[in-house]
Each structure stands twice: as structure tokens, then as C-alpha cells.
Design a protein that fits this description.
Layout lengths: L1 H42 L2 H19 L9 H8 L7 H7 L5 H17 L2 H5 L6 H61 L8 H19 L12 H36 L4 E6 L5 E5 L1 H5 L4 H4 L4 H4 L2 H15 L4 E6 L6 E10 L5 E10 L1 H24 L1 E7 L4 E4 L1 H7 L9 H7 L5 H12 L4 E8 L5 E12 L5 E10 L1 H19 L3 E6 L4 E4 L1 H7 L3 H4 L13 H12 L4 E9 L5 E12 L5 E10 L1 H23 L3 E6 L5 E3 L1 H7 L10 H7 L5 H12 L4 E9 L5 E10 L6 E8 L1 H24 L2 E6 L5 E5 L22 H15 L4 E5 L8 E9 L5 E10 L1 H23 L5 E3 L5 E4 L2
Antiparallel strand pairs: 1-2, 1-5, 3-4, 4-5, 6-7, 6-10, 8-9, 9-10, 11-12, 11-15, 13-14, 14-15, 16-17, 16-20, 18-19, 19-20, 21-22, 21-25, 23-24, 24-25, 26-27
């Protein structure tokens, strides 16, 4: 019995010693693992790392706030309050303590919620930002999101590393614990082999359970079944089970974080995120750019910069990354030579909580589409500015709340203001013409109520120049229907207004001109008809407009009118074309017309303008002149001349009696031989006569020439000689000599008369239109008649200061009659320049029919008077030549009667 008790005590002591040693060894292994992880954690503490991330994010957010407005940080303040100050969750995990998962979820939830919109609601409540502020806000917001994303990634990496080490230590402890339990089981089996029966009730059941636990542990199961009395084994089993459960939770959290990161990067197309350490080794490289290219980002981690990026990008990014590792920030824009796409990179240092730089963080974005959009926007803005400059149209916008107008460059030029001029409404109204401000005030009030409006008004430039502008206004309202701004366009219409004013003035002049002025379209239909046309042709404007111009053209001249219209449609101008037209009463009238093309807006002929003058009197004088020339030519044909014969070989000559009379020699004297003949020839004509003699001697068959001689009485005469070889005797020349002295003189006089008449015809168009007001002051003067005068000083002066007394006396009654609506004519026989002027007085009416003044059409008729006098002189000279002719002459009518016979 004593032996059994001793053996039982020894066996129990051995079992207790083995169990205690196993627990001690497990505890020491556990403590060693905890100390090992603790040592690793001290290098980069998870709580310190997370705390640094939170502080850096808060610092970045406060630096990101453009105005420092505390309201902007209110979402962050709420998120920060949910983050605990104690970040010992990871150390608790490593130490086997219950994990502070609620804290970690609060941290990540708060940061994720804030990163999703970074206080966007607070921004929406702010006043609208300008384009430059919005651009800065967007760019800095993107950098902030990228930094938040980088903080999450760094936190996940540190968390993954710590969990990996914890899991590795736990696996090592599992292996050691399996070995210890196996040794303990073997020792128990070896020590108690002899006591199996005796210790069956006390030892077999616990040992079998331990063996089952060892088998389960070796199979990877983390659930321990221990007897109720084994409190230490139960606690150890529960700790292991809890750690395994939490490790599984961490793996699920890591998978969720990776998925969230993938979705975040996928939502940013064309983005590349990278992180490099001081050795330029890749710690992170991910983004849609890689995925679109089929590149596995995991394979790039750990590689060098030149291995992860194309050579041209790596070469440009390396200096920027090194600067970031030194604490600087850098930006780089790179255009790929292969793809032609442009990327923008922002490189910044990644700092820990102790301000040490752990790596360089890089974010790249494909900005090709943005650059194309910006380039297209610049092109559109340039095209808009060019089109505004060409069309003289400026744009503007008025902010109702700030009372400030923003003008385009062209509008500044229209108003004569420097580019960038941005006036208030009151400052703008100051440059509006005082007479137009009341009208503009009403239009501004209309658009304040939301109604669009248009108006024309005048503005005064700083140099005093007045410009006419046309403005269109439109209101822009907010969501509540209130007008927040007004925008529109302003066009410089000064030239159009001046053209319209000039057209109205010219239209009044045309309407009241003495000439007949009409216009017709390309089909020959009359479209305009002035009062002068009514007087000349007898048709009223109502009767003529819409009718074909053929109502004025005689049947035998229809082709002529078609020719004139065709030339006008071809762009030609026909001046001073003499023709005949038919009046309403059927009578014919001689007219001189000028046909000019009418051009449409594109510069193409669309019709013709016709100006006609009554030249019946001038035509009558021209016909009389032509008749006189015809009579003179007939007299020349029937004139008798002297005859002669000359033997070129012997030099002998024969003269008729008329030849002796022409040379003033006696009939009994001998004819002049060639040498003496040359002596009587005028010195200036001697060479030409000698040349004809020489040519006749050399065989020339005939000759004809005019030359002058000096008669015996010293009188100079002009002779016309005709000679030809005798058909029967080649050495004899026969011919005639005619004394054409009077004839040549008459021809010379006729040429001079013709020249004067041509000058008269050319200058007959010279006329002027003068307008006088009711105070008899000169208002305007149009036309070439008084072009030699300096008219500017005369405008506005009264008639008696300009004209001579007799002229004033003649004009005043007729001007007064014109003011009463009557017309009259007068002739001024000789003005201060000796001209004979015809005056046509008519009322000067406005478009509404009111008489504003008197219109006087001055026309120089001096050429007509001179033509009449020249004709009279020509007739007298012809009569004298007819009577004094040395031969008998007579004019016989077509009926055979003698009309005139000379002496």
C-alpha cells in the first residue's frame, strides 16, 4: 500500500511538473513573441503612425481652407470628435488583449465620410466663387483627396505588416506548443506505462483529452477542450480562439480596404498613384492607367523607378522625386512622344508624425482632354473676340448685387475706354449722352423686372466723340426667380446711322433736283421716280413706278435701251449718251442720259440709275452747225481751181489763167520754173514741196499736198495741189492747184467752233444745287459749278453777304415764292466770272412734305450762248466766203430753184 502511494505521488508530481513546465514554456514563448512584436512596433508604432496621419490630415485641411472660415471645418470637427485619443488597438491585438475594433471603425468611418465630399455642403452655402478661385479650390481639393488616399494606404500597409508579424509569431507559438504537448504526452505515456491500471480513474481521462487537443491543434483547429479543473489551459485556449477570430476579422477588413482603394482609383480615370523610397524603389504604383494597359501593379512593387515607368518619364521625374525626398514639392508636365498624350504630375514628401520623410508620393493625371478643351476654349474666345472686332459688337454683364459691369475688350474700344474698364451703373450712365439717359433708365428698369429689351442711344467718348450704339439686354434669374445679373451685347451703329442720315439728305436732293432721275431693276421696271422726271416726261411717280421703262422709249430705239441696261448690269457706266425719249403726251424730247449700275449689298449690279437732261435746244444748235458744215463741204466740191502741166525732164511748165491769178502774176508773164516756184513757196513748206518734185522726177506716179506761197503782192496764200503722170507722156505731170486760203481759214474757224461746242457740251453738265433757309442763309452747296470757291466759310452766311446786289435783288422774290411752294426760273447774264447762269427755284421739302428752305439749281449755260454766237459767226464767215469767192457759186434747192447766187 505504501509502495502504491509513493508511486502515485511520484506520478502526480511528474505530471504536475510537466504541465507546469509546458505552461511556463508557453508563457515564455508568448512573452517572447509579445516582446518581439513590441520591439518591432517601437520602430514604427501603429498608434504613432495613425496619430501622425490624423494630425497631417487636419493640418492639410486647415491649410486647404481658402478663407480660414471655421464653418468650413465643421464636418472635420465632427469627424475628429469621433476619433479616440488612445490608438492602442494594434498593440492590444499583438498583446492578445481584446481588440478596440469600435475605435478603428470610428476612425475609418469618420475619415472616409470626410474624404468623400471634403466639406462640399459647407462650400455650397458660400457665395459663388470666381473661375480662378474654383480652379485653385479644385486643384487643391484633388491634392487633398490624393493625400487622404495615401494616408489610408500607408495606414493599411502598416496595419497589414503588423498583423502579418503577429500572425507569424502566433504560428511559431503554435508549432512550439504542439512540440511541447507532444513531448509531454510522450513523457506521460513513458512514465505512467506501469501505472495504467492503478491510475485509470485519475489520469487516463485527462490525458486522452490533452491528446485530443494536441491532435486538434496539430490539425489547425483553434478550439481547446480542457477539463474544468484546468483553468490555465482554458484561458490559453480562449485567448488563442479569440486571436484567431480577430485575425479573420482583420483579413476581412483588409480585403474591404483593398476593394475600397480599387473602387476609388477606378473612379479617377487617367490617374496614376505612386510612392518611392529614398532608393527610388517602388512602394506603390497603381491606377486605371496601369489597368487599362493590362499591367499588374503588384509586380512593380520593389522595382526601381526606371523599371516601373517609361524611360522618358523616369528621366524627368527622378529630379522631382529626389526634391520631394528632401522635403520640397514639385510639379511636372510631360507629353509622351509615343502616344502624344500629356500628363501632369504632383510630387510631394510623405511625412510621418515626427516630421520625418518616409517616401515621395506622386500623383499623375492624364490632362490631354483638359488641354484640348482649354485649347478649344481659347480658340473660341479668340474667334469671339475677332468676330466682335469685325462686327463692332461688344458683350457685357452687370452683377445686380455688386452693381459692377464687366465689359469685353471690343466694348471698351467702342466706348473709347481702356481694356479692362469695369464701371458701375452710375459710371456707365455718365458716359451716355444726356439726351438719351431718360430712355435708357426706362430700359434698365424693364430688365430689372426680368423682361428683355433693346434700344439705340448715344455715348460720349473721353475725347468728346459721339458714337451711336444699339444694345440688347437679357436677365439671368436664380432659383427663386429673382434677377441676379443682366447680360447682353452692344453694337457700334454709328456708320449705319450716318449713312442713313446721308441717304435721307441725298434722297431729298435727288427728289428736288431739276434733272430727271429714275432707277430701274434688272428687268427694266421703274422703281424710283423724282420730281424732275415728272416735269420732263409728264408721268407722276404713282403712274411711272412699277411700269416698264419702255413707256419712255420710242419703238425705233428699243434695242438701244436694252443695250444701256446690259452695260449697267455688267458694271459699266455710260455718260452723256444722246438719245430721244417719248413723253406722256406722245411728244418726243431730246435728252442726254447717264446710266450707272445700282449695286446690292454684295456689290453685284441689281439695276440701273438714269439721269436725264433735256438737250432739245442744244440738239437744235448742233444740227444747225452740222448743216453749215455740210454746206461748206458742198461749196468746196463745186469750187474751180487752176490747172498746170510740168515736164519733169525739160523743166518746162504750162499754167492756166487761174494759176496766174492765184500767184498774183500777169497773164502775159511766163510760168514759174521749179526753182523759181520754190522761191515763191513759204520757207517752212519749201522742203516738203522740193521732196515732191524730186519724187516726181524719180518716177512717182502722183502726189497731193498743201503748201503756202507768198504772192507777188506779198500776201500769204494756202494752196492745195494735186498732180499725176500723164497717161500718154510719162515725163509730163498734170494737175490742179486750188487757192484754199479762205477754205482753210473757214475750216480752222469751224474746228475752233467745234472745239468750243465740245467744251460747251462737256461743261454743260456743270451745275450746282444750293439750299437756302428762310433767313436766306446758305445751308449747303452741291455740284461742280462753284467747286473753285472755298464754300466752308460761306455756309451759314446770308445771301446779301455772298452775292452781288443785282443778283440778290433778282433772287430774293423768287426765293420767297419758293418758300410758298412755287417754282420759277431766271437767267443771270453775266456773273463776276462772266458766265451766263440759269437758275431754277423750287421749294426744299422734307420727307413729310414740310418746306424747310429753298432749293436753287444753278446751271452754267455760257457754252450754249457761245455755241449760238459761234454758229452765227460761222454763218457770217461762210456768207462772206461765198460772196467773195473768185468764182461763180450758187446754191440750188432740191426742186431746182436758185436759192442763192454770189456776185
Amino acid at each position: 500500500m505504501l509502495r502504491r502511494l509513493v508511486l502515485a505521488g511520484a506520478a502526480g508530481t511528474a505530471l504536475a511538473t510537466i504541465v507546469v513546465a509546458a505552461l511556463a514554456l508557453a508563457s515564455s514563448e508568448r512573452s517572447a513573441a509579445g516582446r518581439s512584436v513590441g520591439r518591432d512596433s517601437r520602430a514604427v508604432s501603429a498608434s504613432q503612425l495613425l496619430e501622425r496621419h490624423v494630425v497631417d490630415l487636419e493640418t492639410g485641411l486647415r491649410g486647404f481652407v481658402p478663407t480660414g472660415d471655421p464653418a468650413f471645418l465643421s464636418p472635420w470637427t465632427a469627424a475628429r470628435a469621433a476619433i479616440p485619443q488612445d490608438f492602442s488597438g494594434l498593440e492590444s491585438l499583438i498583446a492578445g488583449q481584446p481588440l478596440q475594433r469600435s475605435r478603428l471603425q470610428a476612425i475609418r468611418g469618420a475619415l472616409s465620410a470626410y474624404a468623400a465630399d471634403y466639406a462640399a455642403p459647407a462650400l455650397l452655402r458660400r457665395e459663388p466663387m470666381t473661375g480662378a478661385q474654383l480652379d485653385v479650390f479644385t486643384r487643391r481639393g484633388k491634392v487633398l483627396i490624393d493625400n487622404i488616399r495615401a494616408r489610408f494606404e500607408t495606414f493599411d500597409q502598416a496595419e497589414t505588416s503588423l498583423l502579418h508579424r503577429a500572425q507569424t509569431n502566433w504560428t511559431a507559438k503554435q508549432h512550439r506548443f504542439d512540440l511541447i504537448l507532444a513531448v509531454a504526452a510522450f513523457a506521460l505515456l513513458a512514465g505512467l506505462l506501469g501505472l495504467l491500471i492503478y491510475m485509470a480513474r485519475v489520469v487516463v481521462a485527462p490525458v486522452s483529452r490533452v491528446v485530443e487537443a494536441c491532435v486538434a491543434l496539430g490539425a489547425g483547429e483553434h478550439t481547446f477542450l480542457v477539463p474544468e479543473g484546468g483553468r490555465e489551459l482554458r484561458a490559453l485556449s480562449e485567448a488563442f480562439n479569440e486571436m484567431a477570430e480577430r485575425l479573420e476579422q482583420r483579413r476581412a477588413a483588409l480585403s474591404e480596404a483593398e476593394e475600397r482603394q480599387r473602387l476609388l482609383l477606378a473612379s479617377l480615370p487617367g490617374t496614376l498613384v505612386a510612392m518611392y523610397d529614398r532608393d527610388l524603389s517602388c512602394l506603390l504604383l497603381d491606377g486605371p492607367v496601369l489597368r487599362e494597359g493590362g499591367i499588374d501593379s503588384a509586380e512593380l512593387v520593389g522595382r526601381s523607378l526606371s523599371e516601373t515607368l517609361p524611360a522618358e518619364q523616369a528621366e524627368q521625374l527622378e529630379p522631382c522625386i529626389r526634391r520631394a525626398l528632401e522635403g520640397e514639392t514639385a510639379s511636372l508636365r510631360h507629353t509622351s512622344a509615343l502616344s502624344g498624350r500629356t500628363y501632369e504630375y504632383d510630387i510631394a514628401p510623405l511625412r510621418l508624425a515626427d516630421d520625418t520623410i518616409a517616401a515621395a508620393f506622386l500623383v499623375g493625371r492624364d490632362i490631354t482632354a483638359r488641354l484640348d478643351s482649354e485649347r478649344a476654349l481659347r480658340d473660341r474666345e479668340r474667334m469671339l473676340a475677332d468676330s466682335q472686332a469685325v462686327a463692332h459688337v461688344g458683350s457685357w454683364e452687370w452683377d445686380v448685387h455688386s452693381d459692377r459691369l464687366v465689359w469685353s475688350d471690343e466694348l471698351c474700344r467702342i466706348a473709347g475706354q481702356p481694356v479692362g474698364f469695369s464701371p458701375k451703373l452710375s459710371e456707365f450712365m455718365a458716359i451716355v449722352h444726356p439726351n438719351d439717359r431718360g430712355l435708357l433708365d426706362g430700359r434698365v428698369e424693364e430688365v430689372r423686372e426680368g423682361a428683355p429689351s433693346e434700344s439705340e442711344y448715344r455715348i460720349v467718348r473721353p475725347d468728346g466723340a459721339i458714337r451711336h450704339v444699339r444694345t440688347a439686354r437679357f436677365a439671368r434669374v436664380d432659383g427663386t426667380g429673382h434677377v441676379v445679373s443682366v447680360f447682353g451685347t452692344t453694337q457700334d451703329v454709328t456708320e449705319r446711322v450716318e449713312r442713313e442720315r446721308e441717304l435721307r439728305r441725298l434722297a431729298r436732293i435727288v427728289e428736288q433736283a431739276a434733272e430727271a432721275i429714275l432707277s430701274k431693276d434688272s428687268n427694266g421696271t421703274i422703281t424710283e421716280w423724282n420730281a424732275g422726271a415728272e416735269r420732263l416726261y409728264g408721268y407722276t411717280a404713282a403712274e411711272a413706278i412699277g411700269q416698264p421703262v419702255a413707256i419712255l422709249v420710242p419703238e425705233d430705239r428699243a434695242g438701244e435701251d436694252r443695250m444701256l441696261l446690259a452695260r449697267a448690269m455688267a458694271g459699266d457706266t455710260v455718260e452723256q449718251f444722246w438719245t430721244r425719249r417719248r413723253r406722256k403726251d406722245g411728244a418726243f424730247v431730246d435728252v442726254s442720259i447717264t446710266v450707272s449700275p445700282l449695286l446690292d449689298a454684295s456689290g453685284r449690279p441689281s439695276g440701273a440709275a438714269v439721269i436725264a437732261r433735256d438737250v432739245t435746244a442744244r440738239r437744235k444748235a448742233e444740227r444747225a452747225r452740222e448743216a453749215a458744215l455740210a454746206q461748206l463741204a458742198e461749196a468746196q466740191q463745186i469750187a474751180q481751181v487752176g490747172s498746170w502741166a510740168w515736164n519733169v525732164r525739160t523743166g518746162e511748165s504750162e499754167w492756166s489763167d487761174q494759176m496766174f491769178r492765184i500767184f498774183g502774176r500777169d497773164r502775159g508773164s511766163r510760168p514759174l520754173p521749179p526753182n523759181e516756184f520754190l522761191e515763191h513757196t513759204h520757207a517752212e513748206d519749201r522742203d516738203s514741196v522740193a521732196d515732191q518734185f524730186r519724187a516726181a522726177r524719180q518716177g512717182a506716179p502722183e502726189f497731193e499736198l498743201d503748201f503756202r506761197i507768198v504772192a507777188e503782192d506779198g500776201e500769204e496764200r494756202v494752196l492745195h495741189a494735186i498732180g499725176h503722170q500723164d497717161r500718154t507722156s510719162p515725163d509730163v505731170f498734170r494737175g490742179t492747184v486750188q487757192d484754199v486760203t479762205a477754205l482753210r481759214r473757214a475750216e480752222r474757224d469751224l474746228l475752233e467752233t467745234k472745239h468750243r461746242l465740245e467744251l460747251i457740251v462737256e461743261n454743260l453738265a456743270g451745275s450746282s444745287l444750293i439750299v437756302y433757309d428762310r433767313e436766306l442763309r446758305l445751308v449747303s452747296c452741291e455740284g461742280p459749278l462753284f467747286a473753285q470757291l472755298d464754300l466752308d466759310p460761306l455756309i451759314g452766311r446770308p445771301l446779301h453777304e455772298i452775292a452781288e446786289r443785282d443778283t440778290v435783288t433778282m433772287m430774293v422774290p423768287r426765293l420767297e415764292r419758293a418758300f410758298e411752294g412755287e417754282t420759277s426760273t431766271a437767267v443771270l447774264d453775266a456773273d463776276r466770272h462772266g458766265r451766263t447762269l440759269a437758275m431754277h427755284f423750287a421749294p426744299y421739302r422734307l420727307s413729310d412734305g414740310r418746306i424747310e428752305g429753298a432749293l436753287v439749281h444753278w446751271q452754267d449755260i455760257s457754252p450754249l450762248r457761245a455755241a449760238q454766237e459761234a454758229l452765227h459767226e460761222a454763218e457770217e464767215r461762210f456768207g462772206r466766203a461765198f460772196e467773195d469767192a473768185p468764182i461763180g457759186m450758187a446754191i440750188v434747192g432740191v426742186d431746182g430753184r436758185w436759192l442763192r447766187v454770189n456776185n
